[in-house]
Write a structure and sequence with these properties.
The complex is a heterodimer. Chain A is mainly alpha-helical. Chain A is built from seven helices and two strands; from the N terminus they run αααββαααα. In chain A, β1 and β2 form a beta hairpin. In chain B, the strands form four sheets. A four-stranded mixed sheet of chain B has the order 8-1-10-9. In chain B, strands 2-3 form a two-stranded antiparallel sheet. Classes of the chains: A mainly alpha, B alpha+beta. The interface between A and B is medium-sized, with 18 and 19 residues.
Chain lengths: ~130, ~260
């Protein structure tokens, strides 16, 4: 065991390298927290249960899109019997007033780039430009 | 029991007839395809159309209120370059509207008179026939030639097919060129074709198209061509009207009182 020193120092370097991301994050002050989107306070219930919205909001929005554009259907009967107008800027953003704190947080976190906002107008933009 | 080949075939034939008997009877009972037309499904269909009274329109010179109303309602950008311009409703010199009725002796007063033109929402739209993605289609419920900008791939076949030049292509991102942004209506992106939709989003709310509402002279009249009691049908019955290039067989639904 004459080369014990070499083995242990090699092992230490290896461990240091393999745990580098952990040290790096600690040094940079980032943590493994989720995207933490800010939920609306004035409204308690979305157009579908939160668990469904979390996993399948994109499918719901696609269904809304097809219904409105292709079939001229505008009202959506929700699971709780309420009726909503199918509109991204009108209905969704009337509760989720801050797109940046809600949509963008998760999409940025998950590295998802959506093209909804290439066309659909965030009402906040309009308010800002009119000021 | 021993069964002969002949007996086996007889029995299986009888079984087949018994099994298919119901379908055969149902086929004999049902009316032919000619009787089961689209009219039997659902209520009476609408067919939206418009009359533009060019004489009333010319009363107020330099009025572009219909164009402005359309532009603000639909977030239409104001490009300076005429090749980039987006137009849903725009003005053409009167003599260019009806090239087949051209005469060298047109009244001087009418020469160059700016007359509003828009998509004719044809009965047999050539733009729809050529669209490879189904991004534009004719609505069977009310005859509007609709656009689905989600599906448009920007191939511009429809622009080549439309004999009225009613379609515009977004060569640039339109957002920075929109004067007043309206949140109720989406903008479009670069690489998408757009055109007049007879304000389908306003019709869904029971409102008149923006241009019709904006006209101070009530020169634009909008209504259901399938309803004999509608204002537009009464006007059509009492006034002589022209349609643009009807000889092409597209069946335009915008009429002009000249």
């Amino acid at each position: 065991m004459r080369d014990r020193g070499v083995i242990y120092s090699g092992l230490l370097i290896f461990l240091g390298l393999i745990t580098f991301p952990v040290w790096h994050d600690m040094a940079a002050g980032t943590t493994s927290r989720g995207p933490q989107p800010i939920l609306p306070t004035q409204e308690k219930q979305c157009v579908a249960p939160a668990s469904y919205m979390r996993t399948s909001h994109m499918h719901l929005l696609m269904d809304w899109r097809d219904a409105v554009v292709r079939h001229d259907a505008h009202s959506f009967k929700a699971f709780n019997g309420k009726t909503y107008t199918m509109s991204l800027a009108g209905t969704c953003l009337s509760c989720h007033t801050n797109k940046a704190d809600f949509c963008d947080r998760c999409h940025n976190y998950a590295a998802v780039s959506v093209y909804c906002w290439d066309c659909h107008v965030d009402p906040k933009l309009v308010r800002r430009s009119s000021q | 029991m021993k069964i002969t080949r002949k007996r086996f075939l007889e029995l299986s034939g009888a079984c087949l007839v018994a099994l298919s008997g119901r379908e055969i009877l149902a086929l004999l009972d049902s009316p032919g395809p000619s009787q089961a037309g689209p009219a039997s499904a659902g209520g009476p269909r609408k067919r939206w159309g418009m009359i533009i009274d060019t004489k009333k329109c010319a009363k107020e010179q330099g009025c572009t209120r219909c164009l402005e109303a359309c532009n603000t309602t639909h977030n239409i950008p104001a490009f300076q370059n005429p090749a980039h311009r987006i137009e849903w409703i725009w003005e053409e010199p009167f003599e260019d509207l009806f090239p087949s009725y051209e005469t060298p002796y047109l009244e001087n007063s009418r020469k160059g008179e700016p007359t509003p033109v828009l998509c004719n929402h044809c009965d047999d739209p050539p733009c729809v026939r050529v669209c490879p993605t189904g991004a534009t289609w004719k609505r069977t419920e009310d005859g509007i030639v609709m656009m689905d900008w989600h599906r448009c791939i920007g191939c511009r076949y429809c622009m080549a097919a439309c004999p009225y030049g009613s379609r515009s292509f977004n060569w640039l991102d339109p957002r920075p060129y929109i004067k007043t942004l309206t949140a109720d209506f989406p903008t479009r992106t670069k690489g998408v074709v757009e055109k007049c939709t007879f304000c389908s989003e306003r019709l869904a709310k029971g409102q008149m198209p923006a241009c019709v509402e904006a006209c101070p002279e009530k020169a634009l009249v909008f209504g259901d061509l399938n309803d004999p009691q509608s204002e537009i049908r009464k006007l059509l019955a009492s006034q002589y009207t022209l349609r643009r290039k009807p000889e092409l067989g597209t069946g335009p639904n915008v009429y002009y009182v000249v």
